[in-house]
Amino acid sequence: MENIRVELGDRSYDILIGNSILENTGTKLKTFNFSPKIALVSNELVFSLYGEIVSESIRKAGFDLLTVIIPDGEQYKNIETLQYIYNELLKYKLDRKSALIALGGGVVGDITGFAASTYMRGISYIQIPTTLLAQVDSSVGGKTGIDHKLGKNMIGTFWQPKLVLIDTNTLSTLEKRQFLAGLAEVIKYGIIWDPELFQFIEENKEKIIGLDSNSLNYIIKRSCEIKAEIVSQDERESGVRAILNYGHTIGHAIETVTKYTRYLHGEAISIGMCLEAELAQLLNIIEPSEVIKIKDLINHCGLPCYLPGDIDKIEIISSMYFDKKAVAGKLKFILPERIGKVRIEKNIPEEILKKTLKL
User: Residue 352 pLDDT > 90, yes or no?
Assistant: First the structure.
């Protein structure tokens, strides 16, 4: 089992990565000073696959377990679902020493973390991510939240988990489209931080997509190492952590405009990364050959790279101004200088943005 430490002083925690480790959940919980009452939040699909093994492990460890099942899909990461979770926690009388367990993908992890951060002004939670996207990104770093019809993740908190437990075996039941969406975030780490990771994906993409265990373990571990290093330096995104948003300014706008139903998060971010690389090229920040490499890898991994013609590009631009990274009405982009290095750019002329979107 691999152990990666997120160093945040008294909020530090471990990311444990291994195969067939879900049955150890209860044992890990016993290392914390939690109340006997624990709540597990999941969705119907994930719970049908892994709920029994995790629940049994928790109960065997002596905990009194509440199960809260929420709908599956980004469109349900909203205040109505959050209210339902609160209702269940209150009815079950969870207290300030209780903990929540998030078993699922990014939606489950984000909304469970937000519920934990606000229930009784903050209780503990543990992440058990079951999708590649959640394992390499959303489960690590303490960003929690829900979506609003005007913008993605506009309501949320920074609330670090007590533990992240990653069982790579869960990827064997993940549908291919979901897996590829997660791979988009791994590609992002290569572009913003680690050219060797980018090259590894280039050279091993067939093995990765074929779920080769050695390749998977490497990309998950390396992605978590990068995320842990960045978060340890900048927990609340006042500096270097902002680079994790490469592809997200346009990507989040795409998700908002399409009402969180047309694209998976990683698919929207893939389009965002391609377009933001093109934006960097128009600004003479990056060489065209590097942009081609970025777009080729994204395409070869079965991910989208372009906006279809039926999406209103003016609406995409308007949505960007609701992005939480915008300050004083000015858009902020993370733009690549080369593979492995990005920089923050503000005050991008709107005419350049329109040219990027081919308006």
Answer: yes
